[in-house]
Amino acid sequence: MTSRRKILSYSAGGLSFLLFLAILLVDFADQSLLPPLINTILEDFFQDTTNVVPLGWVTFTFTVLSAISMIVAGFYADRRSRTKICFAGCLVFGVSSALTVFVPHGQLGYMFFYITRALNGIGVGAIIPTIFSLVGDTANPKRRSTAFGFVSAAILIGRMAGFVLAGSLADHWRMAYFMVGLTGLVLAFGLLRIPEPKRGAQEEELHDLIVEGAEYRFRIAKKDIKNIWSNRSNFWLIVNFVDVIPGAILIFLIFKYMKDIHNMEAAPVNFVIFLVIIFGALGALTFGRIGDWGFQKDKRAKALIALMCNGFPILFMILFLRADFLIPDGATLSQTLAVPGVWALIITIVAAMFINQGVNPNWYSCLTDINLPEHRATMISFASIMDLIGQAIGPLVASYLATIWGLKTAMWSVLVFWVLNIFLWLPVLVHIRKDLANVHRVLEERALEMKDLLH
Questions:
Q1: What's the pLDDT score for residue 5?
Q2: pLDDT band at 351, cuts 50/70/90?
Q3: Which residues are CB-contacts of 115 (< 8 A; sequence separation ≥ 6)?
Q4: Which of 112, 206, 232, 329 shows a CA-CA span of 20 to 30 A to 350?
């Protein structure tokens, strides 16, 4: 390949990667609109904010349909064009969100909203596994954790964008969904303007052959599912939904905990969340880069860093939970920050999240590395469903613990799940070298087959 062609190839890959990040950012911004708008939407539909169950059903239906869509889209993404499947998902996602602007008031409006969010779940389910698979074939394996660090940062920034947009358009909440949906539609058509990354093109064994014109024709088959689960690292990486539970509990209880324990109002808590998201994104980028650097020296490095990023936050979380201060009633943000002990609490929670976000890029990279190119979307879909299970279990467990034993006990349970998660990473450390070697062995065999067909 000439230098000019290399430059053009890298430029196209960079633009594609930026588009994938933008789609994820908008996707997660859309998913983050509902929590800040719960009371506003309930008032709009029912003129009452006491019964949250109707919106609970909205979230439940969104989650179930998203999970089903992920499985179907993940399997077919490993057999057919991923950009086309992602395009279809973006269309469904964009149109369903944009149509929210026409939702009427009252209970009829609730039914309309329920349908649009259900469709939105189907669209989101098609986006997640395809985007992650495309990223895996866009990023060089030597920089794969760094690439997934940017993915994790885009997701966090998308969540923050959703919170901010919902808060600024609370009186015109339909417009928030319309704006996100319209942006999603624009990005969807961007997918039609980029070349789809060639499956397996970044793998060391296949790269030169694919550059010469060979094609990686291998696709997932139903019989492969059993073989995939024989990969021990796959099993432990995917069934480990525990790593999602601590974050889910913190998000669920943080406003109530800060108010009930420290008398901190919503505005200062939002400031803390803003810092958590910013430093969480920086943590994902930092530890993603460290993962890539360590991987060149030890093939277990990414798993080891993920394990450490699960363990060290425990120390900061203990300090956070032991903080003892009370903010005066009606204190402004500046007055709150002036209270002794507040900044120590903020630093501990921000430090904990900065380190903990280093798990995601190394986890995604491990899962990509130990699977063949035609298996990755399917495995990401399974892993995403397990994450959804963790996100559902966390608040449920926390609500029971808070009701029976109190709010502090519920927050201390975060430490229990973080400790348990450490033990669930240990089998990955044991098996990952062997599983990586098996993948490279298969790729070497396929490279020989491709070379024979090419010549």
A1: 47
A2: very high
A3: none
A4: 329
What is the Cα–Cα distance from 46 to 51, expressed in whole angstroms? 9
State the burial class of residue 194 (Cβ atoms within 10 Å of its Cβ: 0-12, 13-18, 19+): middle
Please report which confidence band the pLDDT of residue 1 belongs to, taking 50, 70 and 90 as the band edges. Answer: very low
Domains in the chain (CATH in brackets) are 1-197 (1.20.1250.20), 218-455 (1.20.1250.20)
Single-letter amino acid code for the residue at 297: K
pLDDT score, position 362: 93
What pTM does this model have? 0.86
Distance CA(71)–CA(82), nearest Å, equals: 14
Cα-flanking dihedrals φ and ψ of residue 200, to 5°?
80, 0
Give the list of residues 6+ apart from residue 84 with CB closer than 8 angstroms, or none.
none
CB 394 within 8 A of CB 410: no
pLDDT at position 410, please?
87
| The dihedral sign for the CA sequence 218, 224, 230, 233 | positive
> H-type helices in 32-52, by residue range?
34-46
For the record, the structure tokens of 44 come out as 């709009």
DSSP notation for 313-364: HHHHHHHHHT----PPTT--HHHHHTSTTHHHHHHHHHHHHHHHTTHHHHHH
Weakest-pLDDT range from 49-58, 78-87, 136-145: 49-58
Distance CA 438, CA 236 (A): 17
Q: What are 362-382's pLDDT values in tens digits? A: 999 999 999 988 888 888 888
* Gap between the Cα atoms of 383 and 367, Å rounded: 9
Structure tokens at 449: 């087959």
Tally the C-alpha atoms within 13 A of residue 62's C-alpha that lie toward its C-beta. Answer: 22
Q: Which helix (H) or strand (E) element contains residue 202?
A: none
Length of the chain in residues, anyone? 455
Structure-block tokens of residue 78 = 């490993």
- What is the rounded distance in angstroms from the CA atom of residue 178 to the CA atom of residue 182? 6
- Cβ(73)–Cβ(131) under 8 Å? no
> pLDDT tens across 28-65, in order?
999 888 888 888 888 889 888 777 778 878 888 888 89
Place of tokens 């949906």: 181
Q: Are 146 and 289 in contact (CB under 8 A)?
A: yes
Closest C-alpha among 414, 410, 397 to residue 246: 414
Tens digits of residue pLDDT in 388-432: 888 878 888 888 888 888 888 888 998 999 888 888 889 999 999
| Cβ-proximal residues to 410 (8 Å cutoff; 6+ apart), any chain | 249, 253, 398, 399, 401, 402
